[in-house]
Amino acid sequence: MEINLFNLFSENPALVVFVAIGLGFLVGRINIKGFELGSTSGVLLVGLVFGHFGFSSEPIIGTVGFVLFIYSVGLQAGPRFFNVMLEDGRRYVALSMTVAIVGFAAAGGLAVLFGLDNGFAAGVLAGALTSTPTLVGAQNALDAGIAVIEPGLSEAVLHQHITAGYAITYIFGTVGLILIVKFVPSLVGIDLAEASRRYAMEKGFSDGERTVVRGLPMVRGYEVVEGGIGGRTRREIESELPDIDIAVVRLLRDGEALELDLDDEVMVGDRIAILAPPDLHTEIKKTPGLRSGVLDADLLDSYITTSEIVVTTQYAVGRSLRDLRIVERFGCFVTRIVRSQIDLPVAKETTLMKADVLTVAGDAQAIESLAEHIGSIEKDIKETDLATFALGIALGLVIGLVSVRIGNISVGIGSAGGLLLAGVIFGYLRSSNPTFGRVPPAARYIIMELGLMLFMVNVGINAGAGVVEVLLAHGPTLILCGVIVLLLPVALGYAFGVFVLRLNPALLLGSLTGAMTSTPALSALQHAAKSSTPALGYAGTYAISNVLLTLAGTAIMLF
Fold it and tell me: Which helix (H) or strand (E) holds 367?
């Protein structure tokens, strides 16, 4: 049997879409001297190739992808959006707004200077700032009919210009920002490693990249003997042992299990169970007055497990791990902290924010007790509340239809703005009430990723027919504009952060990578700083920047 691949793809748009997505992911993973295009660029590139050869896609595929992606962006930003707006995060809001406004002004100004239309301006803004939400917002402004289309142009041509501007500047934006954070600090005399250590010392963090604690804590039995800790309280014992991240979780006295509060004394002859990471037990064995190797079923009857807890309660939000005394009060260990999909330092002075995800190890009952105080156990949320999810999207689409008439002009936020707003609201309500609108992180990730890929491949296929001609005609100009739109927000944002916000250099550069939503640049920055400190800044600006840059993409199409 003979299969004509060209006819097969021509007659099956759905096949084209998913083959392009699969190939795009493979292309995005190609590593050239440590640099990867990434899935977004890979799928767009393959989509452009398919479109160049005349294959097509169903418009509804891109629409569904756009809706899922933008609403999920809002859901992800929602838990932290209002906290960032109202609390100490005002500095991060100011920095995010600086980057967005400077980038917007630069792209618009260069478009006027070089005679480029708003489609090119939007594409350059999205690509140079490595912001896919900006691209989505610009494309939606066209689809929604709110974009300004100059005489002699058409909606299809502007779609091509947006895509071409994005494609040619995205790679430079990604590589350029990585090079900036890696090499510019040393050129201007900034020691990133020293800046990170200084910030860590000021905040009481441990030095280095301790974002994931090594080794699952284990329970070991010890007997209290003469010449050591007998007569001391649990608080005194835990403070004198090799690390504060240990806990006396059980005590047997004359064969009877007793509750041991922090101020209760341990007596000679007692048997105690200590929960600690494996390497610390080696040090604990050297403690005078403790005999190791005690095997007692009643003493060691603990089921040590790990769970992910989502921070939602006012009791925990805004407090540090030291203030919460998780080890001392609950006998549990925080082994990982994730905020906005970025690992933060597992340090006593790390302050928790709403929607942070803590990976916690300890006794199963102790973890449940901890979860009651700080949030909810993620494993208990397995199903997505599709009813609330769908109604939230519907509400966002309705909000996007609302417009206010000013003279002869109707002004509205469009579908992108409406979906973002609905997502932020529902995400915030979800963080305040864990039983509302359940969307587990894994489900949200796959919905957002699939939505983005459907949107990107549709953009690439539809724009592919004329994108080569556009690039040949305007490529050098777009590259120059991309360089300027990348450098201006970074330079002015850095100056603003140093002289106005007074941010630590490592924290500031991390904030700038978050303001430009560039995870690859954050990874390079942390490697250069030999510290996870920059991730704190990234998490501070990332959520707000996703929202601002989406709106910037829509706004630039209105001029």
Answer: helix 364-374
Task: Report yes or no: 367 and 332 within 8 Å, Cβ to Cβ.
Answer: yes
- Percent of the chain having pLDDT more than 70? 87
Burial code (b: 16+ CB inside 10 Å, e: under 16) for 97-121 equals bbbbebbbebbbebbeeeebbbbbb
Give the strands of the sheet with 256-258, arranged side by side: 256-258, 247-253, 271-276, 218-224, 290-292
Torsion of CA 135, 136, 140, 142, to 10 degrees: 20
- Cα separation, 152 vs 366, in Å, equals 68
Give the DSSP letter string of 471-502.
HHHHHHHHHHHHHHHHHHHHHHHHHHHHHTS-
The pLDDT, as a whole number, for residue 547 is 85
Counts of helices then strands in the chain (DSSP H, E): 20, 16
State the DSSP string of 139-154: HHHHHTT-S---TT--
Query: Global pTM?
Result: 0.72
Cα-based distances in Å from 123 to 29, 50, 120, 132, 515: 23, 20, 5, 10, 18
**Integer angstrom CA distances of residue 98 from 34, 178, 482, 488, 494:** 30, 20, 18, 10, 10
Lookup result for tokens 């993620």? 378
Rounded to an integer, what distance in angstroms lies between the CA atom of residue 201 and that of residue 256? 44
